[in-house]
């Protein structure tokens, strides 16, 4: 079976156009359904409010429903199964695709032997899914707002009892006040903390959510009426909300103007809208699947956030349009109160956050590493919904990111602790919309405490690959898949084990997705996985990642080459392997040797100066040194000029002015002459490069040049020699230069 929904465009704090409901991910637990024959079978509900279906997973028939899942059980439960639909006789049968790639039933009932060659997780192609969505639920076009996620936010909570649930035992108003507002854990109701506590920890106390709970009001119609056969994802659900608001207004128990948060945030000047309102209904959530309380999932409400045509309070003129709706009771039976996971997720939409699970149904998006992808958490209980990802916290201004441009060692505090920090790494070329984010995810705090243990420890560095130009997390791509790398997530986790299981939909995340010592402690241009952009642009290495801890460290790039302070006369050889290169940063600031890259190149405007520094520690000041350097690069200007290389130390400088050439030039020495052996070595190195051992980037045009030279400099004690590439000859539309230093030979003159 499937359901569909319409989408939504967000713009924080401003009015946008709302087109679709945004809902919760389907339950990770199995559900029992009954065949017309009376046979009971166990299925798994997959997908989301937009597209959902059943699967039969033979490997996961013994998973216990409704209790915390172990990591092993969570993996089994997420295993792709065989797609199941109902046939004309109401039997649950295996699905197949017809000639138009739409789901149609086979004649084999679930429970019998699986047909041979039947594909697991059989999903129609994206164009068919979109056509089904449009046919089921026409787009809406209603003004929408996102609440400001800072300071005190007042949230109105309205408890809605359907007309056919008057005899159902439900939690009390006082119970929901604890669920929403408790300041410490409450056994049975909020054992890991309240909704308020979740947002306090995630926002680092930058937002204080205050919820006012209105007691149960009984609606005039039954649950199935409002669900309208489509899990409450039509405008029929708005009737329930309007009916409820009319009853609250008639009771006189609420001053709706109190929930216009701009009054509190803008010096008493409101905008006439209720910014945060949560409806809690008396039914079991449709996202659990199956039959609950005698109602099939189509006749129950799928938890979601949406925008309805405005309802207006006549007394204050305050309007309600944005809303979220959640189940008041947990699971598919019993009277236990609903849990914080789904409420926290739907409230996240109120502040402008999108869903970060995979709408297409093929993958899992961010999985259990982000509230906006999986409110159920690693163990499925919703007691420990995961923290929001680094991207979400930056989006909401709850944290800031330090931009890394200088090599060094950096520390990262766990994201669930007050001192949490985030690093951002931009690619040296390409759009600014693509970058990496680094955060530390540990099993500490109330909510990330659910992170399981894996190889080498528990928790580690989560490294996110972001592309803000991608609208949603609905284009999973991985090496070997059709469309990759053009197809990729908006917010994707670089999984340290290199298995791409989130994109493949094989699980909702596990402990081996994050980086740590003893598992995977590096991410470079050549590792698997790698740090390259989706167009192949490379970054300095991220390596020497520490053991898992609440405060971790990593090395970005490499420190300057430092000669051991031993031989002070004769020849000191500073070897830089051919595969190492010097990076010249686009902003002209100092950069250093990059150890894990074949080449490094930079683009920029004319007259930029780019340089790298090598520290030569000398005991005695003012000693003479001979520096021999071999450089190579490429040119793409009309006159073939590339710029000039300057060697300098302590105020003295010599210029190397290479001429473009497609072959190595003959050795040309500056005073004093370099030793013949060294020159021969440089020529051999140039020949090796010319033969292609270290080619220029594939997206670089123009010929290579090679040059070698030596110069005499005065180097004070432990002062640096600086090698500068000046690009003033390059025009802004053709700038492109890189410099590789294959060796630096330093001869100390006593």
From TrEMBL:
Its EC number is 3.4.24.-. The keyword Hydrolase applies. Keywords: Hydrolase. The keyword Hydrolase applies. GO terms for molecular function: peptidase activity. It is an enzyme of class 3 (hydrolase). Residues 188-397 form the Peptidase M6-like domain. GO terms for biological process: proteolysis. This is Immune inhibitor A.
């Amino acid at each position: 079976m499937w359901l569909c929904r319409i989408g939504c465009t967000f713009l924080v704090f401003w009015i946008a156009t709302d087109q679709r409901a945004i809902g919760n991910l389907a339950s990770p637990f199995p559900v029992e359904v009954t065949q017309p024959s009376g046979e009971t079978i166990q299925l798994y509900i997959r997908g989301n409010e937009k597209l959902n279906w059943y699967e039969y997973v033979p490997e996961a028939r013994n998973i216990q429903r409704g209790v915390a899942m172990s990591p092993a059980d969570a993996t089994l439960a997420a295993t792709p199964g065989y797609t199941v639909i109902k046939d004309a006789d109401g039997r649950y049968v295996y699905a197949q695709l017809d000639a138009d790639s739409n789901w149609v039933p086979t004649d084999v009932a679930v429970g019998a032997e699986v047909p041979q060659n039947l594909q697991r997780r059989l999903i129609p192609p994206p164009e068919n899914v979109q056509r089904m969505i449009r046919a089921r639920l026409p787009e809406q076009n209603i003004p929408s707002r996102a609440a400001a996620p800072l300071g005190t936010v007042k949230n109105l909570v309205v408890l809605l009892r359907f007309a056919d649930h008057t005899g159902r035992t439900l939690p009390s108003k006082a119970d929901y006040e604890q669920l929403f507002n408790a300041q410490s854990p409450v056994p049975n109701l909020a054992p890991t903390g309240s909704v308020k506590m979740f947002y306090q920890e995630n926002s680092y106390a930058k937002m204080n959510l205050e919820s006012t709970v209105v007691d149960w009001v009984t609606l005039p119609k039954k649950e199935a009426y409002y669900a309208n056969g489509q899990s409450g994802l039509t405008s029929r659900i708005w009737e329930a909300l309007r009916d409820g608001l009319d009853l609250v207004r008639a009771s006189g128990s609420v001053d709706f103007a109190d929930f216009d948060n701009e009054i509190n945030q803008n010096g008493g000047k409101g905008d006439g809208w209720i910014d945060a309102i949560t409806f809690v209904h008396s039914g079991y959530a449709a996202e659990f699947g199956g039959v609950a309380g005698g109602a099939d999932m189509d006749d129950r409400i799928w938890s979601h956030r949406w925008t309805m045509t405005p309802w207006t309070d006549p007394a204050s003129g305050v309007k309600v349009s944005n809303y979220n709706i959640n189940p008041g009771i947990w699971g598919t039976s019993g009277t236990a109160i609903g849990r914080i996971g789904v409420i926290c997720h739907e409230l996240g939409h109120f502040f402008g956050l999108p869903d970060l699970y995979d709408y297409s149904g093929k993958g899992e998006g961010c999985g259990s590493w982000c509230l906006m992808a999986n409110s159920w958490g690693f163990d499925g209980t919703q007691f420990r919904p995961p923290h929001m990802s680094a991207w979400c916290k930056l989006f909401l201004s709850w944290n800031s990111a330090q931009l890394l441009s200088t090599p060094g060692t950096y520390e990262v505090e766990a994201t669930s602790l007050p001192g949490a920090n985030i690093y951002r790494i931009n690619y040296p070329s390409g759009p600014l919309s693509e970058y990496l984010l680094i955060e530390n995810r540990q099993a500490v705090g109330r909510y990330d405490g659910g992170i399981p243990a894996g190889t080498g420890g528990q928790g580690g560095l989560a490294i996110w690959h972001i592309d803000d130009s991608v609208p949603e997390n609905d284009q999973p791509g991985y090496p070997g898949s059709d469309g990759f790398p053009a197809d990729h997530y908006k917010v994707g986790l670089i999984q340290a084990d290199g298995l791409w299981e989130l994109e493949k939909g094989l699980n909702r995340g596990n402990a081996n997705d994050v980086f740590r010592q003893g598992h995977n402690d590096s991410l470079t241009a050549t590792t698997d996985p790698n740090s390259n952009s989706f167009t192949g642009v490379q970054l300095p290495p991220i390596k020497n990642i520490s053991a898992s801890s609440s405060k971790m460290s990593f090395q970005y790039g490499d420190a300057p080459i430092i000669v051991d302070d031993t031989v002070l006369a004769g020849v000191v050889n500073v070897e830089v392997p051919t595969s190492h290169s010097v990076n010249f940063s686009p902003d002209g600031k100092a950069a250093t040797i990059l150890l894990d890259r074949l080449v490094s190149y930079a683009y920029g405007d004319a007259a930029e100066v780019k340089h790298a520094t090598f520290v030569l520690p000398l005991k005695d000041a003012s000693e003479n040194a001979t520096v021999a350097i071999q450089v190579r690069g490429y040119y793409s200007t009309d006159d073939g000029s590339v710029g000039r290389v300057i060697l300098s130390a302590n105020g003295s400088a010599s210029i190397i002015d290479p001429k473009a050439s497609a072959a190595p030039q003959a050795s040309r020495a500056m005073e004093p002459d370099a030793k013949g052996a060294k020159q021969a070595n440089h020529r051999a190195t140039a020949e090796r490069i010319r033969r292609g051992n270290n080619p220029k980037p594939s997206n670089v045009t123009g010929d290579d040049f090679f040059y070698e030279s030596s110069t005499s400099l005065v180097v004070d004690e432990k002062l640096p020699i600086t090698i500068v590439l000046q690009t003033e000859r390059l025009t802004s539309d053709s700038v492109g230069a890189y410099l590789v230093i294959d060796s630096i030979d330093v001869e100390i003159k006593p």
